[in-house]
């Protein structure tokens, strides 16, 4: 059984069960979002892009296919090991903790997508991560943070559901605890062992993000509300997609 006393993402993201649970994610939707985002931001053809918390590199590969020089970084050693099979002259992958300075800079565009932020137990570390991202940008560069619309997510929280994937029954329990949206994941593995993991994302609203951005020296250019890039509506938008400038 994993220890939830350790940083949850350091064990869960390297677990084969994480990839099993989420294997049916809508990657077509993600590619369409990335395509719209590139059209919206129109980075120059020679731009250098950073995918911050890139996972197995699927989105970094798509960005590279659009002709950009792309670097993907992620804390998960297993994800980066997988992604590196696709690396080439203009696509690079590194194991990296966003709380540490990024030695691969400078970049014209940094992307932190699909709620890959707000995982840390100490809130100050979120600002450290943002400052590192800002430091990795060229002057005039842009940072995009794609986060859930926390207010709506809390309002519509599904307390319990069961997902059956490849014969495993994942029991998912969600609740709000000490400023975090917590998802508990429990299941019995193939060896009959009880397994328990957690996902914890800090319940950050737009006002708190604004404070972070100010502390990191970033200017908010616009806030989008969904993967079709419609304007953010606090009541109804599923996402908060911040476009920031250095």
From TrEMBL:
Gene Ontology biological process terms, A to Z: methylation
Keywords of this entry: Methyltransferase, S-adenosyl-L-methionine, Transferase
InterPro entries membership: Methyltransf_25, SAM-dependent_MTases_sf
Domain Methyltransferase: 50-141
Gene Ontology terms for molecular function: methyltransferase activity
The UniProt record lists the keyword Metal-binding: no
Pfam family, one: Methyltransf_25
Keyword check for Ribosomal protein: no
SUPFAM superfamilies to which the protein is assigned, alphabetical: S-adenosyl-L-methionine-dependent methyltransferases
PANTHER family in the record: METHYLTRANSFERASE, UBIQUINONE BIOSYNTHESIS O-METHYLTRANSFERASE, MITOCHONDRIAL
Record-given protein name: Class I SAM-dependent methyltransferase
């Amino acid at each position: 059984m994993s220890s939830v006393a350790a940083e949850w993402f350091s064990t869960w993201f390297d677990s084969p069960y994480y990839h099993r649970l989420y294997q049916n994610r809508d990657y077509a939707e993600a590619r369409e979002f990335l395509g719209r985002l590139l059209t919206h931001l129109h980075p120059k053809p020679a731009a250098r892009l950073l995918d911050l918390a890139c996972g197995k590199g699927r989105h970094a590969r798509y960005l590279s296919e659009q002709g950009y020089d792309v670097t993907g970084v992620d804390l998960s050693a297993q994800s980066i090991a997988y992604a590196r099979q696709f690396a080439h002259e203009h696509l690079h992958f590194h194991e990296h903790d966003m709380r540490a300075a990024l030695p691969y800079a400078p970049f014209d565009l940094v992307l932190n997508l699909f709620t890959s932020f707000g995982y840390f137990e100490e809130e100050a570390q979120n600002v450290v991560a943002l400052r590192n991202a800002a430091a990795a940008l060229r002057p005039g560069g842009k940072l995009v943070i794609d986060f859930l619309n926390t207010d709506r997510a809390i309002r519509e929280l599904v307390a319990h559901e069961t997902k059956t994937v490849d014969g495993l029954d994942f029991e998912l329990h969600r609740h709000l605890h000490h400023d975090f949206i917590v998802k508990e994941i429990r299941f019995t593995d193939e060896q009959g062992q009880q397994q328990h993991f957690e996902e914890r994302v800090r319940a950050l609203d737009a006002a708190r993000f604004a404070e972070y951005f100010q502390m990191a020296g970033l200017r908010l250019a616009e806030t989008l509300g969904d993967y079709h890039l419609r304007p953010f509506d606090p009541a109804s938008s599923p996402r908060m997609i911040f476009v920031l400038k250095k």
